[in-house]
């Protein structure tokens, strides 16, 4: 949610849909998966690219909302969009380029977060494990917290009376 234009629902959607970001070997694969990789639409002397209509549409929508929010405010996204317009791109081409750039930014942030989580461990601090506690490194389990010695046995149930 630290990225400009990503709210709680967008961040949740990214986390749910993407899952493990390390399954994408690079940012180009991530862009192809989310539909922000450009598709060649050239004809003759005219060299153009268009936005892909394939890919994960939910993530593409999150990136589109992120781009729209950045265009409304004087942010880095707005400056990038304006530079593309000055370079001769149409509004749609500049928006496509901005969405691809935001896809790369999201990918980079998620990779950084995944790397940080792996290094620090589940407790958020280096060296912590799931079985450590405040008072000792190996907490003792009470008798009520121990698992049963064998499989549970089921008790026969009394059948319900049938109505006539």
UniProtKB/TrEMBL annotation:
List each coiled-coil range.
none
Question: From which domain of life does this come?
Answer: Bacteria
Where composition is biased (Polar residues), the residues are 127-164
Residue ranges of every copy of the Transposase IS116/IS110/IS902 C-terminal domain listed in the record: 2-81
InterPro entries according to UniProt: Transpos_IS110, Transposase_20
Q: Which residues cross the membrane?
A: none
Q: Where is this region: Disordered?
A: 113-164
In Swiss-Prot or TrEMBL terms, this protein is called Transposase IS116/IS110/IS902 C-terminal domain-containing protein
Q: What is the lineage of its organism?
A: Bacteria, Bacillati, Actinomycetota, Actinomycetes, Micromonosporales
């Amino acid at each position: 949610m630290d990225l400009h234009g990503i709210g709680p629902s967008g961040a949740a959607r990214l986390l749910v849909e993407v899952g493990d970001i390390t399954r994408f070997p690079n940012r180009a694969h991530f862009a192809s998966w989310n539909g922000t990789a450009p598709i060649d639409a050239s004809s003759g002397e005219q060299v153009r690219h268009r936005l892909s209509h394939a890919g994960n549409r939910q993530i593409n929508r999150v990136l589109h909302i992120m781009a729209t929010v950045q265009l409304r405010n004087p942010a880095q996204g707005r400056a990038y969009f304006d530079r593309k317009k000055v370079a001769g791109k149409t509004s749609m081409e500049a928006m496509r380029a901005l969405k691809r750039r935001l896809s790369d930014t999201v990918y980079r942030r998620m990779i950084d977060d995944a790397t940080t989580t792996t290094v620090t461990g589940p407790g958020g601090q280096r060296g912590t494990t799931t079985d450590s506690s405040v008072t000792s490194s190996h907490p003792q389990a009470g008798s009520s917290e121990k698992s049963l010695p064998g499989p549970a046995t089921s008790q026969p149930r009394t059948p319900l009376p049938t109505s006539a």
